[in-house]
Each structure stands twice: as structure tokens, then as C-alpha cells.
What does this fold into?
Amino acid sequence: IEPTTHTGILASYRFNDLLSASAGVANTVGPSINSRAFAPVETVNPYAESYKTYMASIAVTAPDSMGFLSGSTLYAGVVNGFNNSVLGNPNLAMPTLNAYVGGTVATPVTGLRVGVAWDLLNVNTTPANIPGNRLEGEVWSIALYGSYQATEKLSFHGRVEYVTSDIDQPAGASIGNFGGNNAIYAVTATAQYDLWRNVISRLEFRWDHAEHGQAFGGTVPGEPDRANAYLLAANIIYKF
It folds into this structure.
């Protein structure tokens, strides 16, 4: 539910070893690269050319004086602007608010780090392409994760996630089975081995489960037929 791309300008500043911040202005929030909120680029519910996306974030890092907690970091950020594909639906283009709070914490166990992340997507608007109807609500998720560096090259990672939605949808504005009032649980386990410099390999398993109805699969778009989804992936990744 987080924004996936921005085209704009971002300024970052580190005040000291403890505190850093950033702020920026971009065209849109949504997944399309170099998109615009105004016509003729945006054809659904367009806004004025002057309508931009604004963002800011802050990070607080634990100093060396905090012992094993040294290097632990707390993050917070917000992005507000035009999203041309709310929850992946190109027929729902409108302003959205995204907020994020997360933290990564070092532990007394050498090589072990744990963390938590909370994300929020809020919509509260009247789409111009659906006159007289108001779309409002929110989607939020929380994730707990951990990583363990077993050897210089081998590491293990795990993540447990919960995401839920509470959105009042006007007639004609369906955003799929997950868009109304539903929840999804997800578990991911990853083994990673660093083959060479800048080259890593990963074996990953993921399980997603919808609390109500079916949210996965299906051969017809918008008509999923399974409550569970399973993914087994093997990757070799080169990092530039």
C-alpha cells in the first residue's frame, strides 16, 4: 500500500549522528513512472496542473553510547498527493495520504536484528468520474520481521504481516474483494547466501491468507477463487 514511484526532487540533511530528515515534491504518488495528476496524461478524475505530491520523513538513530542498541533506527514518514491507481485500480485516481512508522532494533545476540513497520493508506474524496458518491476509508498494515547473520555469507530472514481494509465504496467504484472490509495474513521465510561480491542468491517461501472470501487466483480479472496463495521463489541477484 506504499507509494511505489515518484518523479520529483528530494532534499535530505543529516543534523548529527542521531537525527536526519528529508522533504520532497513530486508529480504523483501512484505506480506509473513519470505520471501526472492533470489532463491529458491523467484521464480519470484529473486535477489542476499545479497539484503536486509532498513528502517528508525523519530518522532517529541510537548512538554508540546505547551499547548493543547502537545503530537501531526509528523512521517516520508521510506522503500526500495524487494517486492515479489506488490499490492498483486505474479507475480510482484521486488524492491519497500515506503514512509510515517503523523501526529496526539491534539485539544482544550477535547478528540478530528485529523490526516492526506500520503503514497507512487513507482516502477521503469524491471521485469526479463517480458523481454524487464519496469514497472514504483506510487500509493499514503491520509487519514484524527479523534477520540473522549466521555466517559471513549466509543469513536467514522472516516476516509476519497483517493488513486490513475498511473502505466505504460508492456504486461503480469497486476496488476488488480486498477493497471493502477484509484482512490478509502473510508469512515469508528467506534464506540468503552471498555468492560473490555484489552477487547474492535467495530461496524464499511466502504464504498469504484472506480472512474473508477469496482474494487470490482466478482466471477472470476481479474474480479470484482462492483464499490462500503460495509462492516459492529462487533468485540470483546482481547489485550494482
Remarks:
- The mean pLDDT is 85.
- The two ends are 27 Å apart (CA to CA).
- The CA atoms of residues 122 and 138 lie 4 Å apart.
